Amino acid sequence: MIPGSRVLVSRIACSLAAITATMPADAPVQQRQASSTAAPMRLGAASNFSQGWSERTWRAALDLPLRRLRDGIRWADVERTPGQYQFDKPTTTWPDRFPDGGAGITLTLNWGNPLYDDGETPHSPQALAAFGRFAAAVTRRFPHIDTLEIGNEINGSNFVSGPVKDAGLAERGRYHLAMVRAAAAAVRKVRPDVRVIGGSTHSLPAGFLWPLLDMPGAGAIEGLAVHPYTTPIDQLPAQIGLLRRHGPAAALPLHVTEFGSEDTRRAADDLMRGYATLAALGAAEMDWYPFNERGDGLVPLVGRDGMLTDAGKAFRFIQSRLAGLAARDTSPDRFTSVRAFGLDTQVLWGAPRAVTIDAAKVTAFDAAGARLDPRGLSLREDRALVLIGREPLAAGQSIRLGCNPLIADSFHQFGYPQPGPLPGPLPGGSQAPGDGFARFVRVAGREMPFEVMPGQQRAGVPWTPYLGRAGMANLRLMADTMLPAIGGKDGAIIHRYLAGRDARVRLVAEFTVSQDSADGITVALARDEREILARAGSAPVRIDLHLTLRKGQTLTLSVGPGANARGDTTRYRIQVFDEGRCPKDASPES
User: Fold this and answer.
1) In this structure, are residues 239 and 204 in contact, taking their beta carbons and an 8 Å threshold?
2) What are the CA-CA distances from residue 510 to residues 288, 313, 439 (Å)?
3) Beta partners for 572?
4) Helix pair 267-280, 236-243: axis angle to 10 deg
5) What is the pTM of this model?
6) CB neighbour list of residue 473: distance below 8 Å, 6 or more residues apart
7) In DSSP terms, which residues pair with 573 in a beta bridge?
8) In whole angstroms, what is the distance from residue 44 CA to residue 104 CA?
9) Is residue 477 within 8 Å of 493, Cβ to Cβ?
């Protein structure tokens, strides 16, 4: 990973009235498994035994227990004489320290060897052939290895060298594919059961991965490895969904071989929410980074004292209660996330609302596995609530969700429209299905739709999907940030809300421009065509207004640059609440 880079009402499950069997919450995972076409996701952690053996860390891995490791073995440490492989020190024999069948291994092979191509990332025919032979030797030596990850964040600059680093993005992909093919061809002769995965990218750059998968010989890639540090957890479904729109990416298993959090207060929840989200998306693997302290700001499972952190406790809780269960998304709306595991377990988070459970049938836990008082439970966007039933959880019976007044949210409803005209007319634009806002660009009074940009399709753009326009190189709109780099008079990024009925609403919006901005941004709000307020400058803008809207009226928020757009990356959030939908005590706090 790159150091310093960094997670409607009561119906929350399908009806299970026909199921009569009951099971206690602490029944073995195998007994609580629900039928599903998706295989359960493998859970592991990124260890670093290849970089230095630690008895304390090894003991902590056995005690957890850590049933899956993602680690490496350096080629140069094993092949010190051409054609001879010596596994003779702790950093090259560490798999032997784990009992047979006790831990599966995803092994990352990335670094070069001074014997070939001067130790740079392999690129010559001779070095690639030698790399393949080493891959075969290491998989033959260690039966624990069931997956080979070729490369590590190859779309960046930290883990590649030589001609491979100097090449442009398109050529970088060709070099990477050559490494995958060399390893796959050699490994399949000795261990055809080992899956060879590639891609190996930081973030979710569909603009980099799609061309790679279209190259001749890309069938050697049996799975995609990604490290989605730059994607908010709640945006994973949209971004992975976009990645999978492209033919070859649709069927390849997705291996999230690094996933982590820099927030010590939220790491346990980030682990639980990330696991639940990825499992329901059908990912093949998720490895938390790191297992032990690395000093890079990401929260480990085990601290320097060998004790479990809160993230480690969440990992242990997931491993004991959720791992091995197929997951499915049973969310009732765009603002409430519910992932069901088996028949009797739910993981919930989302916009604030009350949660009521039948305490005689359901037990509530936090992300780290601590029991919660069943009274006064509620949802939060950054906290996971885990509910485990003593019998199958049925809709509206043992769990009830309170009222939620939120009706439009720029973050939760953000997505990537399919190509072509968007359905549904809206004054001044069109609106994607399920979105509370029409989003578009205005230049000199002309309104134009956004286009989906896949991410890292060229240098200098985000490594995740975003909305922009082909003719506006720096314009971008993402779920939580925007860059209103728009030329011309009255240039702005627009969010427009259309009232579906007469209502009293509360509009809450925040815009915080980067400290690097040269002259700040402009923010304007209009009801229909009448401007209500306007702000300009570098100070954060917060809007909190109570408004009466008639059916068909619109609220339009415009964000543009000042005299120029230098440094104008802006964090934002726009929400609309229906003040008549819920009792006052259910409304969000100011």
Assistant:
1) yes
2) 32, 35, 17
3) 511
4) 40
5) 0.91
6) 460, 485
7) 510
8) 9
9) yes
The vertex-440 CA angle with 435 and 443, nearest 5°, equals: 165
Closest CA relative to residue 217, chosen from 178, 188, 191: 178
Say if residue 574's pLDDT is above 80. yes
Pairing of strands 541-549, 466-469: unpaired
Taking every pair of Cα atoms in the chain, the longest distance, rounded to a whole number of angstroms, is 79
Sequence-separated (6 or more) residues with CB below 8 Å from residue 64: 301, 302, 308, 312, 315, 316, 319
Could you tell me which residues come within 8 angstroms of residue 531 by beta carbon, excluding any fewer than 6 positions away?
A: 524, 525
pLDDT digits (tens, 9 = 90+) for 86-114: 999 999 999 999 987 778 999 999 999 99
The closest alpha carbon to 207, from 15, 505, 461, belongs to 461
Q: Per-residue confidence at 26, pLDDT binned at 50, 70, 90?
A: very low
Q: Are 382 and 345 in contact (CB under 8 A)?
A: no
CA distance 585 to 590: 12
HEC string of 516-585 equals CCCCCEEEEEEECCEEEEEEEECCCEEEEEEEEECCCCEEEEEEEECCCCCCCCEEEEEEEEECCCCCHH
Q: Which residues contact 497 (CB under 8 A, 6 or more apart)?
A: 408, 436, 437, 507, 554, 555, 556, 576
* Cα–Cα distance measured from residue 448 to residue 421, given in angstroms and rounded to the nearest whole number: 11
Q: Residue written as tokens 């005299």? A: 563
Q: Please enumerate in sequence order all residues whose Cβ is within 8 A of that of 415, keeping only pairs 6 or more positions apart, or say none.
A: 238, 432, 434, 435
Say how many C-beta atoms besides its own lie within 10 A of residue 79's C-beta: 22
| Structural contact between residues 50 and 71, judged by C-beta atoms closer than 8 angstroms | yes
In contact, 401 and 354? CB cutoff 8 Å: yes
- Cα distances (Å, whole numbers) of residue 350 to 338, 339, 354, 382: 9, 12, 11, 7
Q: What are phi and psi of 36, to 5 degrees?
A: -160, 150
Nearest CA-CA partner of 220 in 113, 128, 157: 128
CA atoms within 13 A of residue 120's CA, in its CB half-sphere: 13
Amino acid type, 261: S
Domains located in the chain, CATH noted: 1-69+287-403 (no CATH), 73-236 (3.20.20.80), 408-578 (2.60.120)
| Residue 534 contacts residue 524 (beta carbons within 8 Å) | yes
Backbone phi, then psi, for 33, in 5-degree steps? -70, 135
Q: Tens digits of per-residue pLDDT, 226-257?
A: 999 999 999 999 999 999 999 899 999 999 99
Give the span between the Cα atoms of 447 and 462, in whole angstroms. Answer: 24
Q: Whose CA is closest to 284, among 70, 35, 51, 25?
A: 70
Rg, Å, the chain Cα set: 25
- End-to-end C-alpha distance for the chain, whole angstroms: 39
Give per-residue pLDDT as tens, 252-267. Answer: 999 999 999 999 999 9
Query: How far is residue 100's CA from residue 107's CA, in Å, rounded to a whole number?
Result: 16
Across the strands, what pairs with 483? Answer: 476
User: In the structure encoding, which two tokens stand for residue 381, read together?
Assistant: 């966007």
pLDDT value for 114:
98
Question: Which residue reads 């310093």 in tokens?
Answer: 4
Q: Residue 572 CB: number of other CB atoms within 10 A?
A: 24
Question: Percent of the chain beyond pLDDT 90?
Answer: 83
